[in-house]
Amino acid sequence: MRVVCDRLTKDFGNFRAVSSLSFALNAGEVTGFLGPNGSGKSTTMRLMLGLDTGGGSTTFDGKSLNAYSNPAKIVSAHLDAKCFHPNRTARNHLRMVAAASGVTHKRVDEVIELVGLESVARKRPKGFSLGMGQRLGLASALLSQPQVLMLDEPANGLDPQSIAWLRDFVKDYAADGKVVFVSSHLLSEMELLATHLVVIGRGTLIADESMEQFVSRSTRNEVFARTPAAERLMQALAAEGVTAQAADGGVAVAAASTEQVGAIAFTNGIELHELTARKASLEEAFLELTSDTQEYTMERGH
Questions:
Q1: CA 229, CA 118: separation in Å to the nearest integer?
Q2: Contact 78, 151 (CB under 8 A)
Q3: pLDDT digits (tens, 9 = 90+) for 161-175
Q4: N or C terminus: which one in the chain shows less Cβ crowding within 10 Å?
Q5: Rounded CA gap, 152 and 160, in Å?
Q6: Domain residues for 105?
Q7: Domain count for the chain
Q8: Distance CA 243, CA 237 (A)
Q9: What's 185's DSSP letter?
Q10: Residues 6+ apart with CB under 8 A from 53
Protein backbone atom coordinates (compact mmCIF):
# COMPACT_ATOMS: atom_id res chain seq x y z
CA MET A 1 0.00 0.00 0.00
CA ARG A 2 1.22 3.48 -0.89
CA VAL A 3 -0.63 6.66 0.02
CA VAL A 4 0.00 9.75 -2.09
CA CYS A 5 -1.22 13.20 -1.09
CA ASP A 6 -1.10 15.61 -4.00
CA ARG A 7 -1.45 19.39 -3.51
CA LEU A 8 -3.87 19.23 -0.60
CA THR A 9 -5.35 22.68 0.00
CA LYS A 10 -7.93 24.01 2.46
CA ASP A 11 -9.23 27.53 3.01
CA PHE A 12 -11.34 28.79 5.89
CA GLY A 13 -12.65 32.05 4.52
CA ASN A 14 -9.59 34.18 3.77
CA PHE A 15 -7.33 31.94 5.84
CA ARG A 16 -5.37 29.20 4.03
CA ALA A 17 -4.93 26.38 6.55
CA VAL A 18 -3.27 23.91 4.14
CA SER A 19 -1.43 25.07 1.03
CA SER A 20 -0.63 22.75 -1.90
CA LEU A 21 0.71 20.06 0.42
CA SER A 22 2.19 16.94 -1.18
CA PHE A 23 3.84 13.90 0.40
CA ALA A 24 3.71 10.09 0.33
CA LEU A 25 3.36 7.34 2.93
CA ASN A 26 4.82 3.87 2.45
CA ALA A 27 3.96 0.47 3.84
CA GLY A 28 6.24 -0.96 6.48
CA GLU A 29 7.21 2.29 8.17
CA VAL A 30 5.83 4.58 10.85
CA THR A 31 5.65 8.14 9.54
CA GLY A 32 5.50 10.87 12.15
CA PHE A 33 3.46 13.98 11.34
CA LEU A 34 4.85 17.08 13.05
CA GLY A 35 4.16 20.78 13.06
CA PRO A 36 3.68 23.68 15.47
CA ASN A 37 0.22 24.42 16.86
CA GLY A 38 -2.01 25.74 14.11
CA SER A 39 0.16 24.30 11.34
CA GLY A 40 -2.72 22.37 9.74
CA LYS A 41 -2.00 18.78 10.83
CA SER A 42 -5.55 17.81 11.84
CA THR A 43 -7.01 19.55 8.80
CA THR A 44 -4.60 17.64 6.57
CA MET A 45 -5.68 14.34 8.06
CA ARG A 46 -9.33 15.22 7.56
CA LEU A 47 -8.66 16.13 3.94
CA MET A 48 -6.91 12.79 3.41
CA LEU A 49 -9.97 10.96 4.75
CA GLY A 50 -12.49 13.06 2.83
CA LEU A 51 -13.95 14.46 6.06
CA ASP A 52 -13.20 18.01 4.87
CA THR A 53 -13.62 19.36 1.36
CA GLY A 54 -10.76 21.16 -0.30
CA GLY A 55 -8.31 21.10 -3.17
CA GLY A 56 -5.94 18.32 -4.17
CA SER A 57 -6.31 14.57 -3.83
CA THR A 58 -5.27 11.55 -1.79
CA THR A 59 -4.91 8.15 -3.42
CA PHE A 60 -4.49 4.72 -1.87
CA ASP A 61 -2.54 2.45 -4.23
CA GLY A 62 -3.51 4.80 -7.01
CA LYS A 63 -7.25 4.92 -6.26
CA SER A 64 -9.40 7.37 -4.33
CA LEU A 65 -10.87 6.06 -1.10
CA ASN A 66 -14.45 6.07 -2.40
CA ALA A 67 -13.40 3.74 -5.23
CA TYR A 68 -13.08 0.88 -2.73
CA SER A 69 -16.13 -1.22 -1.85
CA ASN A 70 -15.17 -1.28 1.84
CA PRO A 71 -13.04 1.79 2.65
CA ALA A 72 -12.77 0.76 6.31
CA LYS A 73 -10.53 -2.12 5.22
CA ILE A 74 -8.24 0.34 3.47
CA VAL A 75 -7.89 3.15 6.02
CA SER A 76 -9.07 3.77 9.56
CA ALA A 77 -8.34 6.67 11.87
CA HIS A 78 -8.41 7.76 15.47
CA LEU A 79 -8.72 11.55 15.44
CA ASP A 80 -10.68 12.33 18.62
CA ALA A 81 -10.44 10.70 22.05
CA LYS A 82 -14.08 11.62 22.80
CA CYS A 83 -15.70 10.47 19.55
CA PHE A 84 -18.37 8.18 20.99
CA HIS A 85 -21.91 8.25 22.37
CA PRO A 86 -21.51 8.94 26.11
CA ASN A 87 -24.38 6.66 27.16
CA ARG A 88 -23.63 3.64 24.98
CA THR A 89 -21.32 1.09 26.59
CA ALA A 90 -17.82 0.73 25.23
CA ARG A 91 -18.61 -2.72 23.80
CA ASN A 92 -21.82 -1.53 22.17
CA HIS A 93 -20.02 1.46 20.69
CA LEU A 94 -17.48 -0.89 19.11
CA ARG A 95 -20.23 -3.21 17.89
CA MET A 96 -21.91 -0.26 16.17
CA VAL A 97 -18.64 0.67 14.44
CA ALA A 98 -18.06 -2.99 13.56
CA ALA A 99 -21.49 -3.30 11.93
CA ALA A 100 -20.73 -0.35 9.67
CA SER A 101 -17.40 -1.90 8.69
CA GLY A 102 -18.53 -5.49 8.18
CA VAL A 103 -16.63 -6.72 11.23
CA THR A 104 -17.79 -9.58 13.48
CA HIS A 105 -18.57 -9.41 17.21
CA LYS A 106 -15.66 -11.82 17.73
CA ARG A 107 -13.30 -9.18 16.39
CA VAL A 108 -14.84 -6.63 18.78
CA ASP A 109 -13.94 -8.84 21.73
CA GLU A 110 -10.42 -9.36 20.33
CA VAL A 111 -9.83 -5.62 20.09
CA ILE A 112 -11.24 -4.98 23.57
CA GLU A 113 -8.68 -7.40 24.96
CA LEU A 114 -5.91 -6.01 22.74
CA VAL A 115 -6.22 -2.45 24.05
CA GLY A 116 -6.96 -3.42 27.66
CA LEU A 117 -10.64 -2.44 27.91
CA GLU A 118 -11.96 -5.69 29.42
CA SER A 119 -12.67 -4.18 32.84
CA VAL A 120 -14.70 -1.29 31.41
CA ALA A 121 -16.26 -2.89 28.33
CA ARG A 122 -19.75 -2.79 29.88
CA LYS A 123 -19.37 0.75 31.21
CA ARG A 124 -20.49 3.99 29.58
CA PRO A 125 -17.56 6.04 28.30
CA LYS A 126 -18.95 9.37 29.49
CA GLY A 127 -17.04 8.73 32.73
CA PHE A 128 -13.83 7.59 31.02
CA SER A 129 -10.56 9.38 31.62
CA LEU A 130 -8.79 10.87 28.60
CA GLY A 131 -6.44 7.90 28.54
CA MET A 132 -9.29 5.37 28.58
CA GLY A 133 -11.03 7.37 25.84
CA GLN A 134 -7.84 7.10 23.79
CA ARG A 135 -7.91 3.32 24.18
CA LEU A 136 -11.52 3.18 23.00
CA GLY A 137 -10.72 5.36 20.00
CA LEU A 138 -7.74 3.19 19.11
CA ALA A 139 -9.92 0.08 19.44
CA SER A 140 -12.40 1.58 16.96
CA ALA A 141 -9.61 2.28 14.49
CA LEU A 142 -8.23 -1.26 14.75
CA LEU A 143 -11.50 -3.13 14.26
CA SER A 144 -11.21 -3.52 10.50
CA GLN A 145 -7.46 -4.25 10.53
CA PRO A 146 -6.90 -1.48 7.95
CA GLN A 147 -4.02 -1.24 5.53
CA VAL A 148 -3.55 2.38 6.59
CA LEU A 149 -3.78 3.46 10.24
CA MET A 150 -3.96 7.19 11.01
CA LEU A 151 -3.63 8.42 14.59
CA ASP A 152 -3.90 12.04 15.77
CA GLU A 153 -2.21 12.59 19.16
CA PRO A 154 -2.91 9.00 20.31
CA ALA A 155 -0.68 9.20 23.42
CA ASN A 156 -2.47 12.17 25.04
CA GLY A 157 -3.62 11.17 28.52
CA LEU A 158 -1.80 7.84 28.56
CA ASP A 159 0.46 6.81 31.43
CA PRO A 160 4.10 5.83 30.68
CA GLN A 161 3.34 2.09 30.58
CA SER A 162 0.49 2.66 28.12
CA ILE A 163 2.67 4.91 25.94
CA ALA A 164 5.34 2.20 25.81
CA TRP A 165 2.69 -0.37 24.86
CA LEU A 166 1.30 1.93 22.14
CA ARG A 167 4.78 2.51 20.73
CA ASP A 168 5.52 -1.20 20.47
CA PHE A 169 2.09 -1.95 19.00
CA VAL A 170 2.32 0.76 16.32
CA LYS A 171 5.83 -0.32 15.28
CA ASP A 172 4.72 -3.96 15.04
CA TYR A 173 1.64 -2.95 13.04
CA ALA A 174 3.80 -1.13 10.49
CA ALA A 175 6.31 -3.99 10.38
CA ASP A 176 3.45 -6.23 9.23
CA GLY A 177 3.40 -4.30 5.95
CA LYS A 178 0.92 -1.59 6.93
CA VAL A 179 1.05 2.20 6.58
CA VAL A 180 1.05 4.07 9.91
CA PHE A 181 0.71 7.87 10.07
CA VAL A 182 0.96 9.40 13.55
CA SER A 183 0.61 13.01 14.65
CA SER A 184 2.04 13.95 18.04
CA HIS A 185 3.51 16.82 20.05
CA LEU A 186 5.49 14.34 22.19
CA LEU A 187 8.76 14.72 20.31
CA SER A 188 10.81 12.50 22.60
CA GLU A 189 8.29 9.72 22.00
CA MET A 190 8.17 10.36 18.27
CA GLU A 191 11.95 10.02 18.16
CA LEU A 192 11.57 6.46 19.45
CA LEU A 193 8.58 5.65 17.26
CA ALA A 194 8.95 7.00 13.73
CA THR A 195 11.47 6.19 11.00
CA HIS A 196 10.14 8.81 8.58
CA LEU A 197 8.83 12.34 9.12
CA VAL A 198 6.44 14.70 7.40
CA VAL A 199 6.86 18.16 8.94
CA ILE A 200 4.65 21.13 8.08
CA GLY A 201 4.38 24.75 9.16
CA ARG A 202 1.58 27.16 8.36
CA GLY A 203 0.08 24.57 6.06
CA THR A 204 3.17 24.13 3.88
CA LEU A 205 5.72 21.33 3.67
CA ILE A 206 8.98 21.73 5.60
CA ALA A 207 10.28 18.16 5.36
CA ASP A 208 9.37 14.76 3.93
CA GLU A 209 12.37 12.60 4.79
CA SER A 210 13.80 10.01 7.13
CA MET A 211 14.20 10.80 10.82
CA GLU A 212 17.98 10.61 10.39
CA GLN A 213 18.00 13.08 7.48
CA PHE A 214 15.80 15.57 9.33
CA VAL A 215 17.88 15.54 12.51
CA SER A 216 21.12 15.80 10.52
CA ARG A 217 19.98 19.20 9.18
CA SER A 218 20.19 20.73 12.65
CA THR A 219 23.12 22.98 13.47
CA ARG A 220 23.07 21.40 16.95
CA ASN A 221 24.93 18.39 15.54
CA GLU A 222 28.57 18.81 16.54
CA VAL A 223 31.77 17.11 17.58
CA PHE A 224 33.02 17.71 21.11
CA ALA A 225 36.73 17.54 21.82
CA ARG A 226 38.35 17.70 25.25
CA THR A 227 42.00 18.69 25.16
CA PRO A 228 44.58 20.52 27.30
CA ALA A 229 45.34 22.59 24.18
CA ALA A 230 41.90 23.94 23.36
CA GLU A 231 43.14 27.24 21.91
CA ARG A 232 45.64 25.50 19.62
CA LEU A 233 42.95 23.08 18.43
CA MET A 234 40.54 25.91 17.59
CA GLN A 235 43.31 27.70 15.65
CA ALA A 236 44.17 24.51 13.76
CA LEU A 237 40.52 23.90 12.92
CA ALA A 238 40.03 27.50 11.78
CA ALA A 239 43.03 27.12 9.46
CA GLU A 240 41.16 24.28 7.77
CA GLY A 241 37.95 26.30 7.51
CA VAL A 242 36.21 24.44 10.34
CA THR A 243 34.10 26.44 12.82
CA ALA A 244 34.73 25.75 16.52
CA GLN A 245 34.18 27.41 19.86
CA ALA A 246 34.97 26.80 23.52
CA ALA A 247 32.18 24.93 25.32
CA ASP A 248 31.73 22.72 28.40
CA GLY A 249 35.43 22.80 29.22
CA GLY A 250 36.39 21.69 25.73
CA VAL A 251 35.85 22.56 22.07
CA ALA A 252 32.55 22.25 20.19
CA VAL A 253 33.05 21.77 16.46
CA ALA A 254 30.17 22.43 14.07
CA ALA A 255 29.54 20.57 10.80
CA ALA A 256 32.41 18.16 11.18
CA SER A 257 33.05 14.47 11.79
CA THR A 258 35.12 12.91 14.55
CA GLU A 259 37.48 11.61 11.85
CA GLN A 260 38.08 15.11 10.49
CA VAL A 261 38.67 16.67 13.90
CA GLY A 262 40.90 13.78 14.97
CA ALA A 263 42.99 14.03 11.80
CA ILE A 264 43.51 17.79 12.23
CA ALA A 265 44.49 17.30 15.87
CA PHE A 266 46.94 14.51 14.94
CA THR A 267 48.54 16.53 12.13
CA ASN A 268 49.13 19.42 14.53
CA GLY A 269 50.38 17.24 17.39
CA ILE A 270 47.46 18.12 19.67
CA GLU A 271 46.64 15.70 22.49
CA LEU A 272 42.97 14.71 22.76
CA HIS A 273 41.36 13.31 25.92
CA GLU A 274 37.88 12.96 24.43
CA LEU A 275 36.36 13.07 20.94
CA THR A 276 32.61 12.57 20.76
CA ALA A 277 29.95 13.11 18.11
CA ARG A 278 26.97 14.89 19.66
CA LYS A 279 23.74 14.31 17.77
CA ALA A 280 20.89 16.79 17.99
CA SER A 281 17.64 15.50 19.45
CA LEU A 282 14.46 15.54 17.38
CA GLU A 283 13.19 18.32 19.67
CA GLU A 284 16.26 20.46 18.99
CA ALA A 285 16.01 19.89 15.24
CA PHE A 286 12.26 20.51 15.18
CA LEU A 287 12.42 23.77 17.16
CA GLU A 288 15.25 25.05 14.98
CA LEU A 289 13.82 24.07 11.60
CA THR A 290 10.27 25.25 12.33
CA SER A 291 11.15 28.46 14.17
CA ASP A 292 9.97 30.67 11.30
CA THR A 293 6.54 28.99 11.20
CA GLN A 294 5.61 29.24 14.89
CA GLU A 295 2.21 30.94 15.27
CA TYR A 296 2.69 31.52 19.00
CA THR A 297 5.93 32.17 20.85
CA MET A 298 6.75 32.73 24.51
CA GLU A 299 9.61 34.71 25.93
CA ARG A 300 11.65 33.15 28.69
CA GLY A 301 10.93 34.51 32.14
CA HIS A 302 7.34 35.44 31.28
A1: 64
A2: yes
A3: 889 989 999 999 999
A4: C
A5: 18
A6: 2-216
A7: 2
A8: 7
A9: S
A10: none
